[in-house]
Specification:
184 residues; 15% helix; elongated; alpha+beta; 5-stranded antiparallel sheet
Length: 184
Amino acid sequence: MKTIEEINLHNVKKILAEKKIPEFFPGDVVKVGVRITEGKKERIQYFEGVCIAKKSRDLNSSFTVRKISFGEGVERTFPLYGTLIDSIKVIRSGKVRRAKLYYLRDRTGKSARIAEKIRKKIGIDVDVKPEVVTEENVAPVVEAPKEEAPAAEVAPTTEAPKEETPVTEAPKDEQKSEGSSEKK
């Protein structure tokens, strides 16, 4: 007989196979597309705000999103694997050091802002599959050129070697003293 945890894990895997849920954390600004049914019509309404809490409980996982609408704070808790959620999109990542951002409820204006986390791009796409090496796509091997003849066999040139004259500059201390004496 299966335990409840095994059943929940199986259901979570089944849901994740059908729809893609991005990885997001508290402090991120997310745009949640919610299915709204009005009579026989169905439409998608977007709820965009800051994720202030995320609860990971297998099938019972949920997250809370807070936004300011017409000067009033509005919070909504969504089930992560619920059927009403059409899409979740991360707009920007927030740089926070807490798991629950309930302190944002008391703040308004500039004090309620969250700094943006800047992710570095290292130029490697993780999703790209490595190319299979076959004889057809391998570059032909070019043999290394033969070494040059030893120096004794090389004919001497008729031109005399050019000598470079070193350029000397006066030390900076002397230049300063000269400049200061001119000013006086």
